[in-house]
Amino acid sequence: MAVNLQKGQKVNLVKSNGKKLTKLMVGLGWDAAVQEGGFLKKLFSGKSDIDCDASVFVCKGGKLTNKDDVVFFNNLKHKSGAVQHMGDNLTGEGDGDDEQIFVDLEKLPADYDKLIFVVNIYQAVSRNQHFGMIKNAFIRIVDNENGEELCRFNLSDNYDNMLAMVAGEVYRRGEEWKFNAIGNGTTDPGLSELSKRFM
Q: Which positions ≥6 away from 97 have C-beta within 8 Å?
């Protein structure tokens, strides 16, 4: 049974049988909220679907030290082979995960100690879009060896006028890996601006 996390809650990444979780899938999902005026407003405003992009900052000493350590739609695989992004979903249509990122913690070199999972809206400023137009956003951790969902964090705060989101982080404490449910919105207009927060 998956644990539903609250904002700021931290959990150890262990399998349901108590063993260490080493291969995990991080799923992120969202839906576009129906705006007032519905279909006709969309038709006449010419607004396109909201294109959210999930990315990972692979950090050393808790900091992002190299642009090559950003895994996103233009750099789908980390140089270590430990983090693999499964590609870009342009609309958020459909149920379940919109974007998935696979992590093999045993492959991650020892000097990396934190993975920060973020989502930003592509061209948010020029499209006049923000996270207040998103509903049902979540991040979840799945045991990649058996497909079991271990924990889920529903991002339910008011994110009006926020252009990006720090969803959660997987980090090392001694020999253990943990997940921290963050859910903080930011006004960073793009991934490069967002990444500077963690350098």
A: 27, 28, 29, 140
| pLDDT, averaged across the chain | 88
pTM of this prediction? 0.89
pLDDT of residue 135: 87
> In the structure encoding, which two tokens stand for residue 193, read together?
């601006």
Secondary structure class of 127 (helix, strand, coil): helix
Burial status of residue 83 (CB atoms within 10 A of its CB: 0-12, 13-18, 19 or more): buried
- Residue of 79, 67, 98, 74 lying closest to 167 (CA atoms): 98
How confident is the model over 130-146, as pLDDT tens digits?
999 988 899 999 999 99
Determine the pLDDT at residue 157: 87
Q: How many residues does the chain have?
A: 199
Alpha-carbon distance 165 to 159, whole Å?
9
Question: Which has more confidence, 48 or 116?
Answer: 116
Ramachandran category for residue 115: left, alpha or beta (phi over 0 → left; psi -120 to 50 → alpha):
beta
Backbone Cα Rg of the chain: 17
Are the C-beta atoms of 119 and 54 separated by less than 8 Å? yes
Residue 130 CA, chain-centre distance (Å), reads 16
For residues 73 and 54, give the distance between their C-alpha atoms in angstroms, rounded to a whole number: 8
